[in-house]
UniProtKB/TrEMBL annotation:
A single BP term in Gene Ontology: carbohydrate metabolic process
Signal peptide from the UniProt entry: 1-27
Gene3D superfamilies: Chitosanase, subunit A, domain 1 (1.20.141.10), Chitosanase, subunit A, domain 2 (3.30.386.10)
Residues the record marks as active site: 47, 65
UniProt GO MF annotations: chitosanase activity
Superkingdom in the source lineage: Bacteria
Alphabetized UniProt keyword annotations: Signal
Protein name: Chitosanase
Any one cellular-component term (Gene Ontology): extracellular region
Database matches in SUPFAM superfamilies: Lysozyme-like
InterPro entries: Glyco_hydro_46, Glyco_hydro_46_N, Lysozyme-like_dom_sf
């Protein structure tokens, strides 16, 4: 039977819609609620040696990496500006909060490892603030704005699925996205010298291996990050297994500890 006119056009439209729908359904993205929670658990396993990320709002210590205090669910640092941004956001959400008085000191120590003006009570006050739902909400908001959302957006633009988006997210968490040679953007640029992402016609496995290679190089530029197990025995292991959608159960090792998400 010969199909012509509007009926033929309608069939073509339906076929296109079906293809788009199927394609979307088959691709797992990290911003799906369950996968976002999994991403947080994996990052927490490396940052806090625990998958219980929701218990890390009050975490704070100086890990001797030259970034001052590291704290909260994503490792906000007093020396890199993101902690300052967080406390400023908290002030807008709850004026007069217990951390507001430290804003002048946080501005002064930004870019350094100094605790000047923060000791001796900043860590105690941080833990007090972490019991406040407004401070928890501020931490999650800044995590999404600075780290999670940019990683997922770039991952989708590059045509990579949940695993690739997570690899980007973990890189931004550790290295930030500033102008230095080990920042996320420059890690990605280094990878582009070796391979192309799927959005540019490249193979997803080849691209993610190139990105992970560049990430390993960036990690090894700092003594505090010379252990690259968070890549090699987690992300790379899932890549080798072809688990682009981060399907559970997930098993991995990082910094000598073993973890499982069922």
């Amino acid at each position: 039977m010969k199909i012509t006119g509007r009926f033929a056009a309608a069939l073509l439209t339906c076929a296109a819609l079906l293809t788009t729908t199927v394609g979307t359904a088959s691709a797992a993205n990290l911003d799906e609620p369950r996968l976002k929670d999994i991403a947080m658990q994996i990052v927490s396993s490396a940052e806090n040696s625990s998958t219980d990320w929701k218990s890390q709002f009050g975490y704070i210590e100086d890990i001797d990496d030259g970034r001052g205090y590291t704290a909260g669910i994503i490792g906000f640092c007093s020396g890199t500006g993101d902690m300052l941004d967080l406390v400023e956001l908290y002030k807008t959400k709850k004026p007069g909060n217990v951390l507001e008085k430290y804003l002048p000191a946080l501005r002064k120590v930004n870019g350094t490892e100094s605790h000047s003006g923060l000791d001796p009570n900043y860590t105690k006050d941080w833990k007090t603030a972490a019991k406040d739902s407004a401070f928890k909400a501020a931490q999650e908001s800044e995590r999404d704005r600075v780290y999670f959302n940019p990683a997922v957006k770039q991952g989708k633009a590059d045509g990579v699925r949940a695993l690739g988006q997570f690899a980007y997210y973990d890189a931004i968490v550790v290295h930030g996205d500033g102008g230095d040679k080990t920042s996320f953007s420059n890690i990605r640029k280094r990878a582009l010298g070796k391979a192309k992402p799927p959005s540019q016609g490249g193979n997803e496995t080849t691209w993610l291996n190139a990105f992970m290679d560049a990430r390993v190089w960036a990690m090894k530029q700092e003594a505090a990050h010379e252990d690259v197990s968070r890549i090699e025995t987690a992300q790379r292991a899932w890549l080798k297994a072809g688990n682009f959608d981060l399907k559970t159960p997930l098993k991995w090792k990082v910094y000598g500890d073993s973890f499982t998400i069922n």
